[in-house]
Amino acid sequence: MTTAGTVVKSICRMCHGVCGVNIHVEQGRVVKVTGDPDHPMSRGYICSKGRASPEFLYHPERLQYPLKRAGARGENKWERISWDEALDTTAERLLHFKNEHGPESVALALGTGRPYMFMSLRFANAFGTPNVISYAHACYLPRVMASAVTCGMHLPVCDFYGFGGVKPALVLVWGCNIQETGSADGMCGPMATRVIRNGAPSIVVDPRKTPRAQKADLWVQVRPGTDAALALAMLHVIIEEGLYDKEFVEKYTVGFDRLVERVKEYPPSRGEEISWVPEETIREAARLYATTKPACMLWGNGLDQSPNCFQTARALLILRAVTGNIDVPGGDVFWVPPEKVFQTSPFVEPENTLLGMMTPEMAAKKLGYGETIPLNPGVRHPVFWDAVLEQKPYPVKALLVMGTNPLLTSSAPLKGEEALKRLDFSCCIDLFMTPTAQLADIVLPAASWLEQDDVADLHFIWCVAARQKVAEIGECWDDKKILFELARRVGLEEFFPWKDVREWCDSVLEGAGIDLESFKEIGLLQGEMRYRKHETDGFPTASGKFEIACSALEVMGHDPVPDYLEPPESPYSTPDLSENYPLIAITGAKIEPFFHTELRQLASQRARNPDPLVELNPETAERLSIAEGDWVWIESPRGKIRQRARLTHGIDPRVVSIQHAWWFPEREPPEYGWKESSASLLLDPRPADPIWGSEPWKGFLCRVYK
Questions:
Q1: How many CB atoms neighbour CB 150 within 10 A?
Q2: Cβ(585)–Cβ(635) below 8 Å
Q3: Are strands 454-456 and 463-467 parallel, antiparallel or unpaired?
Q4: In whole angstroms, how large is the CA radius of gyration of the chain?
Q5: Model-level pTM?
Q6: Of 12, 399, 440, 578, which has the fewest CB atoms closer than 10 Å, so is most exposed?
Q7: Is CATH 3.30.390.10 correct for 155-333+536-555?
Q8: Rounded to whole angstroms, how far apart are CA atoms 84 and 421?
Q9: 238-261, pLDDT tens digit by residue?
Q10: Which CATH number fits domain 75-136+339-526: 3.30.1120.10, 3.40.50.740, 3.30.9.10, 3.20.20.70?
């Protein structure tokens, strides 16, 4: 805790980012959060979410003590209980179903990769359940695992920091709205903007003319879901014109000859036919990217949520490699994390999550097993909904929900609502009551980032930083503490031996010879960066090289070289359907004032975006007799919602962009109006990617009318 009139340096966590901030405390109360200009990661940047942290912390609707359901599910009748009763009840129920039906009858549902990610995965593996319901199919992990099978390492990251004395000479932003989405989760966006403002040209690939695209040297307006075809057409130009890095290709890659044959199928003329990007624009983008050295690529969820995400990610990795931009100063690099700090990222050291305890027999019991390649560890929400409702392939009885509101952010949410009501038991951990939490048996109040001590990392790239606890609200607990206490009650104390969060933080730092208190004084530990590691170490793949033709995919029966698949719903794959649903919809992107479903309770954030919005081209709106600000229906083959029309020339007349995750916390519980405007009601729940199982959030058909 802090004294009056102090400024505490810490790390924000209002989104995925780890921006350095100054917390201003007066008379024991947080009054303001500002960007820390001295912090090497964010260098003074702070978004509106970070500035709204005190409003979030002290919001009167915060959950402040454990609750037990006192009526039927959905009646909004709750009874205040103690932490002991809440945890004892939860533990008893989880153990009961584990003993009666096996550990697989208990599932965990996780949201975004916040500090609970490591502990929750560790808990699932120790408990024995393979059923972790997550957004792994639609967020970040497709790119991580595509990088793992291609490079053998965690995905490369833009070298904006210039540790090698060089910063990017060009920035290619692909499927990443770095300003609207909280600047690429805090760090990358503002760093990219700094580099561009200092003179580096930029290319933006996006169906929408985003704020960054408006200022780009080249905006490449791609048809949603066709990024792989565009990438292959760019590779065609680069190879045909000899613009690739011949030395890197010859020494450090395998499968280039197969790529040469594949891209012959994708001349820019065909690239234009598929992606709607003019042939000359494809050539211009390819030449500019290949000839400006070093170049880096900032990519985002726009790729993960496309129908062909895995091979698209591989195609973009190959673009980086053949142009010689892999692991070079100012390019896309593999960061070296701090030495002797316990690795909590499941993407870097998965064994630290006790992954080895999950036997092949138990892993094979994962719901939806065989639907995708084994590298995809998560269970898709619609698969879980079906298993609960049908009790197949085995009884599914209990659910632990952490930091997620899947009725607003997953596909098939009406089926999800029915499944959540049908469960024998569920416990939800959150900061506010939500439509999902309303259907739980036990609700536990989580702490915000201002109420946590932590050794913070951004998926462990090049540093860890100190987060400092400055407040306590009611009986709110750190997620990690909740899992420690629950683990003890279900007999897993040997795997969770830390008596409290501080002892856990000390253990993370033990190898570095410091504890949490001394770490707070230091503020940050970073690794010693080395570039061009492949020149001495090769790539940690089966071949020891960057695998353009991927041996792992070939073994699993998939095409080892990237190819293009038409979206399952499109004017070309389903022409009959497109007669009734003529517009291509995109959704799933974060909105700057909010973080997915979070923060709509905050007056400051709602003032920035008070109503749900759908973007239409004025030409489309005129044809449909829609004016700016009109409430309109958006309908897909799955359902319909209403949002306000926002007209913009920055979108193709054949495409609409729908804000996602909308609900209205000010409305009556238990639903809070979530069925009115939530884009999740429109989503196609079928897996569109044959390798990864992604759903086509960026590219399904709809119609719009007043």
A1: 25
A2: no
A3: antiparallel
A4: 24
A5: 0.96
A6: 578
A7: no
A8: 25
A9: 999 999 999 999 999 999 999 999
A10: 3.40.50.740
